[in-house]
Amino acid sequence: MSALWLQRHAQPLVAPGICYGRTNMAADDKATAAAALALQSAWAAEALPAGTVWHSPLQRCSQLATALQAQAPAFALRACDDLAEMDFGAWEGQRWDDIAREEMQAWTADFMAYAPGGGEALATMMARVARALDAARQQALDTGQPVLWISHAGVAQCAHWLLTRGQRLPLAKDWPSVKLTYGEWLRLPLFGEL
User: Most buried residue, 20, 26, 34, 96, by CB count within 10 Å?
Assistant: First the structure.
């Protein structure tokens, strides 16, 4: 069975309600250790061999990848820019409630093409996640094993959308298609067989 295991980073060290997308920050150390232990236990329970852990280069994800490797040293780590969170441009560091209503409406009206805060459009993010999924499929074919990513909620939403809805473009009302809490993971079919 070729699956993508995608784990979200632990609780970042940021106040609630802040837009922090591409902002590079650490996560809570205890929550990170607990998330790594939970994933390693689930991986071991299925008797899966340690392989390469692809992770976002942002600190909160590399921190979790390193914690996982500390518990299971056979895992190799590989940072992947395609797994970074969405860049919200000028919205980064602002309270979601403080972002102008007109800007939020412009984003929801043109959900795929609008670049929130002048950052990254969802279409651009979907394209890079699709590229990462192509690499994951190739890895699964080469190894015969599941693929493990440590990333962000936005990447999980894009991957879930692409793997379950294919080429249909999302509207704002469709989003998110899946929700991951901090430290949680999901398994997705890479080839449609799960």
Answer: 20
Q: How far apart, in whole angstroms, are the C-alpha atoms of residue 157 and residue 47?
A: 27
Q: Which domain range does residue 106 map to?
A: 3-189
Q: Residue 26: in which H helix or E strand, if any?
A: none
Residue 148 included in any domain: yes
pLDDT single digits (tens) 32-83: 999 999 999 999 898 888 889 999 999 999 999 999 999 999 999 999 999 9
Count of C-beta atoms within a 10 Å radius of residue 24: 14
- Whole-prediction pTM: 0.94
Pairing assessment for the beta strands 147-151 and 3-8 based on DSSP bridges: parallel
Of the chain, the end-to-end C-alpha distance in Å amounts to 7
Give all strands (DSSP E) within 52-132, no chain letters. Answer: 52-55, 76-79
Number of compact structural domains in the chain: 1
Whether 194 maps to a domain, the answer reads no
Residue 93 backbone phi and psi in degrees, to 5: 85, -5
We report the CATH number of the domain holding residue 14 as 3.40.50.1240
